[in-house]
Write a sequence for this structure.
């Protein structure tokens, strides 16, 4: 979160807004949870577990809508399979 949702002031490291002093600690914790779920989604996808990746990205999106999570969900919805084989056949020498 870069700006306070109450007064739009730029935020620093403090969990309270520097301008309006709104306590943002719970919102920041939710944002951290969303990021953790998104990280888990990529970990599951890298391991070839698409169903678990879908679950994790949906959990992330329930907490925070973001472009990366939305694109990952769209990618997973296409049902593409990741494989360890190269995308192009090797050239004969």
């Amino acid at each position: 979160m870069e700006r306070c949702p109450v007064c739009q002031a730029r935020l620093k490291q403090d969990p309270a807004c520097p301008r309006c002093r709104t306590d943002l600690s719970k919102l920041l914790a939710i944002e951290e949870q969303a990021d953790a779920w998104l990280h888990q989604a990529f970990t599951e996808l890298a391991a070839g577990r698409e169903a678990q990746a879908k679950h994790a990205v949906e959990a992330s999106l329930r907490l925070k809508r973001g472009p990366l999570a939305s694109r990952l969900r769209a990618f997973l919805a296409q049902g593409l399979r990741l494989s360890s084989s190269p995308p192009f056949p090797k050239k004969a020498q």
